[in-house]
Design brief:
The complex is a heterodimer of chains A (about 110) and B (about 260). In chain A, about 45% of the residues lie in helices and about 20% in strands. Chain A is an alpha+beta fold. Chain A has a domain of about 70 residues. Chain B folds into two domains: about 110 residues, no CATH class; about 140 residues, no CATH class. Chain B is built from ten helices and six strands, in the order βββββαβααααααααα. With about 260 residues, chain B is mainly alpha-helical. The longest helix of chain B has 30 residues. Chain B starts with 15 loop residues before the first strand and ends with a helix. Classes of the chains: A alpha+beta (about 110), B mainly alpha (about 260). Chains A and B meet through helix 2 and helix 3 of A and helix 1 and helix 7 of B.
Chain lengths: ~110, ~260
């Protein structure tokens, strides 16, 4: 699914199975550029709250996200790009060019 | 984070579920072995880790990205995976025989799938739990409303009470004892969820809200320890079975010839 989020992990071992090249990011740089960075603990607390207070579809999605995030020690970046002037067909390439600078090869 | 759109999370690959299961998978849709199931996918992919009625949108988008004609391909590169058929003879000769993989292959060739499924239920083995829930979920989807599979679903609900004994060897990836300690509880819960999703999918087919949302009976217990969660699960089993029986009775499908059956017994 295409979303405004990028998943990252706090623990390198949890994403080793991707067996690709590892990249690291700096949360402060992301936050300084007005994007949102949700740390693992914050993400888990939010999901816990949804699981306890919601029902049906929303609860099942939250439970699934909780299980996957727990195993991956996942944190989440929400990109706050303004895409109004970018044509729909160009958006993936545009995002790639603007997101890449936040990740450095380990 | 695991990629939930790879063959190791596909309903057509019954003997694997993310990190646990047989070393090699088997696709019931393509009749091929899956040697790189954590990295491959295909047009027909259906995720195990959500009830089908909640994952349709994602499946549609995924199917659009992976044309039917390409077969099984690597997720990122989209290069085709090598096509390898299952051969019991080859497995014995190369000392690679895997009983779980073999069970899936036998099921695939079996004519009387319903009988096979009934006989296959109930086990303490986590991989058998995963296999049986995948088989049943696929089976009841294929039957749709045509056959009322309440007996299979009742058995699957009953199976929720079974204690599951998980070993380090049940993991298909290499993990340390320390990691096993962390992952074990997580996967024990996952095995329960897979069965609950199956029951919910049955409810969705019947358009029965109570069965479709039995997940809410657990009231967030997933957040507790395995011991507490399992205790909650055991408590809801009679409630779930009651929903299934009442629903089948309403439709008039619940053992319609029960008198003659009792006489036989």
């Amino acid at each position: 699914m295409k979303t405004p989020y990028t998943s990252v992990s706090e623990v390198q071992n949890s994403i080793n199975h991707f067996s690709g090249i590892l990249y690291k990011t700096e949360p402060n740089q992301i936050i300084n550029d007005k994007h949102k960075f949700k740390a693992h603990s914050e993400l888990m607390n939010e999901l816990r709250s949804i699981i306890l207070t919601s029902s049906k579809k929303e609860r099942i999605y939250a439970q699934r996200a909780f299980m996957l995030a727990n195993r991956a020690k996942e944190a989440l970046i929400e990109w706050e790009f303004i895409l109004d002037t970018v044509k729909k067909k160009d958006r993936i390439k545009w995002c790639y060019n603007h997101i890449q600078k936040y990740f450095q090869r380990v | 984070m695991r990629n939930p759109y790879t063959c190791d999370n596909c309903i057509y690959n019954p003997s694997q579920y993310f990190d646990i299961g047989s070393k090699v998978g088997y696709c019931l849709k393509c009749s091929l072995l899956l040697k790189s199931s954590s990295h491959t996918t295909c047009h027909f992919f259906k995720r195990k880790d959500l009830p089908l009625f909640l994952s349709q949108e994602g499946h549609k988008e995924h199917a659009g990205d992976y044309p039917e004609s390409k077969g099984i391909v690597f997720y990122y590169s989209k290069h085709p995976e090598q096509e390898i058929k299952y051969s019991e003879c080859h497995a014995w000769l190369t000392n690679t025989f895997d009983p779980y993989l073999h069970e899936v292959a036998i099921y695939h060739r079996s004519e009387k799938k319903w009988v096979y499924l009934q006989a296959f239920l109930s086990s303490r083995n986590p991989i058998k739990h995963i296999i049986s829930s995948s088989f049943i979920r696929r089976y009841i989807q294929q039957c749709g409303k045509k056959n009322d599979n309440y007996r299979l679903v009742l058995s699957m609900a009953n199976d929720l009470k079974e204690k599951i004994s998980m070993q380090l060897e049940d993991f298909r990836i290499e993990i340390t004892y320390e990691e096993f300690g962390e992952l074990k509880e997580d996967y024990l819960k996952e095995i329960i969820l897979l069965k609950i999703y199956g029951i919910q999918e049955y409810g969705s087919i019947l358009e029965d809200d109570k069965i479709m949302w039995i997940s809410d009976e657990l009231n967030g217990a997933l957040l507790y320890s395995w011991k507490e969660f399992f205790s909650y699960v055991q408590q809801i089993v009679p409630v779930v079975q009651n929903y299934i029986i009442s629903s089948a009775k309403q439709r008039g499908t619940f053992f319609p010839d029960s008198d003659s059956f009792e006489e036989m017994g």
